[in-house]
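From the pipeline queue, job 12 of 40. The input is one protein chain; the requested action is below.

Action: predict structure.
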Amino acid sequence: MRNSGTQSLTIRTPEGIEFALPLAGPVSRMLALVVDLAVVMTIAQVAEQILAPLGFLGADFSEAIKVLAYFVISLVYMALAEWLWRGQTVGKRLLRLRVVDAGGLRLEPSQVIVRNLMRFVDALPALYLVGGMACLVNRHRQRLGDLAAGTVVTRAPRLSRPDLDRILGGKFNTLAETRHLAARLRHKISPELGAIALEALLRRGEIEPQARLALFGEMAGYFRGVVEYPAEVVEQLSDEQYVRNVVEVLFKEGASSQQHVTSSQ
């Protein structure tokens, strides 16, 4: 993995193939944070009404409970949203941002927890000054929480529907026919991973034969691990055809699969 300038993070596979992920800048991240803080404040106001009866215990105690409730709500909301929405919160969805593993791997729960626990350090002394300064001086635009968790925040590009007929050659797709497993694929595979697989197919003619076999073997192995299909469905598929079929499931025009494209917009 290396950085190619200040705008994108380049992930290099063992086969020497490079894929670039556009990085989110401090301004877009701050705008997303403002939206998320508004969500947190709204939830906190509801919690304040629920906790109002505790006021009889004294003003100081009541204020301490409110402050504690705000921090708990903030942490739980940010961490839970990023895990359930695969690296996104309400603000990140609106700004088309996503938290991803810095090495291109799947985001783990521990990474989500660490980067959000460090959020309170990044917020010091006020207005996320520490985190903002870290983003400005770091080549991968990472705040302290990202550095500790090994994550980066990317901008999700707008993806137009690819020419699937040119890529797939009109071949029958056994993965798409197993509809409930195809739906699971669309749910579990992020738009960024789908875009990388699509780019690999579009650039397959540029890749040396041995590297091409290794690359699609690695991708197919990952996709097979995400959703396990019955042996009779996949046993005749080569690694490259498996990746082609996955890309068709992710990008094929239709109400269900268009959701995958829209989620990255």
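Job complete. Residues 26-51 form the longest helix (26 residues).
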